[in-house]
Amino acid sequence: MASPAGDAVVYAGDDPTNPLSLFGIPITARIQALSNALASGTTSDIDIVKRFMNYIDQFATGVASDITPDATVIERIGACTTFVHTLLALARCQNIQGQYVNLYNYPPANGHTVSQLQVGGEPILFDPTYNLWYSAKQGCAQYVLDYAATHAQAVTGIALAVDGGSARAGADQFTGDPIYSMANPQGIIGPANPMLFPLSLDLNSMPSLVSADFGAQSQGADYLGAASTNVEQIWTLSGLQVGSDYSFTLVPGFLGGDFAQGDNYQFEIDVSMTDANLLQTTGTPFDFSAGTPAPLVVLFQAGAASVTLTLTTPYRGPALRYVSAESFTLAASNGPPPVQMEQHKRAQSADPDDAPVRPGLHVSSQFFASSPR
Questions:
Q1: Which residues in 221-255 are b (16+ Cβ under 10 Å) and which e?
Q2: Could you give the maximum distance between any two Cα atoms of the chain, in Å?
Q3: Would you say the CATH fold of 190-363 matches that of 4-182?
Q4: What SS3 class is residue 198?
Q5: Structural domain 190-363, CATH architecture
């Protein structure tokens, strides 16, 4: 169980060599000791990883008291994201670097997280939840696959060969060809890897989406920008009349991330559209210097019954910068968009450096996106 020695930090939560730094999670002496014990007597990195996978395969599926590897191994319970935390932490303690691979929106309203580890100088995809990896044959030789090759085989219809495997429930839904061909978006998360999330509004059946309804059905709606996952959005706006004017409104919540002295507390969003004439955009960049800013309002003329609107940002990391969303609304418009809307009062967050905190800011070094299962 927990002890002062076990809780000692070996790799800090902001250490760039710690793959868990995407979530601000440290790797402790407890995990290092466990990694050394499990790796004892092995002769190769691949054998080490298999040991780690077999160990994790003994755990129950469920929710531990927190998302750290320590809670997972002490309580012997977790789910895909925490199993990946644990595998990456154990591997890092043996100087095996790794990355998170997220698979969103498949099965519908669900998703999955796996890992890619540098084993013997080569990237290999490992799924610790189901204790497996994928391979392909070339002639008489069998080759293990990295994430890119796994995805490429799935989308081109080449059946994936599964190596290993466990009896854990859900393997039929979260492994194999369907999830690697159908998940959208999917890929390695982290700096320089933005992910474009598909979202939708319909003027007749669902003209608005509010934060209370964000969840598995609207993955990627809760924030924009660089956090554990770098989120951008592509909206399908439907139920429109060709030639009529409409507005799309994004009401922001707070600005979060890593703030430095002299920061302007602004957040930029770039807007583009297809099958529509973009008439006017107001409220960008968001300016949080005096509190929560006015909404982003996009006025457009529909060129089709269904149009697409894409929201991108310049933020990639490793410094975090993200803006939370309160609501998105599609409405018919009879004139220019409003320049101001009533704002909700927001609680101020405590600044760890005791500097003044501006309203609408979330001063932290971490933000947890909606995780796959």
A1: bbbbbbbbbbbbbbbebbbbeeeebbbbbbbbbbb
A2: 73
A3: no
A4: strand
A5: Sandwich (2.60)
How many helices and strands in the chain, by DSSP H and E? 8, 24
In contact, 122 and 147? CB cutoff 8 Å: no
Helix, strand or coil for residue 331? strand
CA–CA gap between residue 95 and residue 87 (Å, rounded): 12
* Pair type for strands 194-202 and 286-287: unpaired
What one-letter code names the amino acid at 183? A
SS (H, E, C) 173-190: HHCCHHHHHHCCCEEECC
The DSSP letter of residue 93 is T
* pLDDT tens, residue by residue, 51-61: 999 999 999 99
Residue 258 is encoded by which pair of tokens?
């890593």
Q: Cβ neighbours of residue 147 under 8 Å, at least 6 residues apart?
A: 101, 114, 116, 123, 125, 187, 188
The predicted-structure confidence for 249-263, as pLDDT tens digits, reads as follows 999 999 999 998 899
Q: Determine the residue type at 318.
A: P
| Beta carbons within 10 angstroms of residue 49's beta carbon | 25
Contact between 18 and 96 under an 8 Å Cβ cutoff? The reply is no
Report the candidate in 158, 179, 147 with the shortest Cα–Cα distance to residue 372. 179
* Matching residue, tokens 């969003």: 269
Q: Which residues of the chain have pLDDT under 70?
A: 1-5, 138-141, 335-373
CATH number (2.60.40, 1.25.40, 3.10.620, 2.40.50) of 4-182 reads 3.10.620
Token couple for 187: 């890929």
Burial code of 58-89, b = ≥16 C-beta within 10 A, e = fewer? ebeeeebeebbbbbbbebebbbbbbbbbbbbb
Kindly calculate the radius of gyration of the chain based on its CA atoms and give it in whole angstroms: 23
Domain ranges of the chain: 4-182, 190-363
Quick: pLDDT tens for 185-217. 999 999 889 999 999 999 999 999 999 999 999
